[in-house]
Amino acid sequence: MARSEAAGASDAIWPGFVRHQAKVMELVLIDDHPVVREGVCALLSLESDMRVVGDAGDIETGIELVRLHQPDLVLCDLTMPGCTGALAVRKLCQECPTARVLVLTAHDSLECMRESFTAGAIGYVRKDALRVDLLAAVRRAAEGHHAMCRGVSDELTRNWLLNAGPAPPAPAEALDPEDRQILRLIALGVPTWRIAADLRRGVKVVEKYRASLMRRLNLSNTAAVARFAVRSNLLSHEEVDQVVSTD
To answer: Using 50, 70 and 90 to split pLDDT, how confident is the model at 2?
Structure first.
């Protein structure tokens, strides 16, 4: 059967059937390194739902491209001629207020991340991110959601665990060994039944002990226990990484 005949037969079987193709998101890339632009453009162009409609090596040219193409997403570096920190992002967001900007940079400091989001960025991806993380962030940001690569997410979570919230309500030195052990296990996400098995206690006994301990320390949930354990040095560096990776 000829292709046209097959199409006609299909339409006859499904009246009103219309073939829809997935929307192709249009992207603009702004980076002052030609090799980076060529590599990222080549990578993105391999995806059937992505199309790079323009790339630029400076922010002024990039703004012109964004105004011309009205892309779904702009990938923008932080450091370019005449721009440092989040200045490029701020300028781009001011000149093109409807643009969604995903920062793609080698900078991984918390200050750069904070400044970028404050300036108007919707996402932040490091240039050493895995390909799958970059593509996932591009798709998420293009849909209007905040997006980060795994390395950035881990760094922000680690910072939150170490610094967020009030100071520990009680010094860890004031806790007895069993208190410290149970707090560590709670922070690591160990379920109550497993804690009971490790301590050779009944589940109900451990539940009451756990509730009493958290109430005494004014810790309302597992996240609060994790912060307390990290800031009180109840966890090793490896265990802190485990808490971050499972957050």
So the answer is: very low
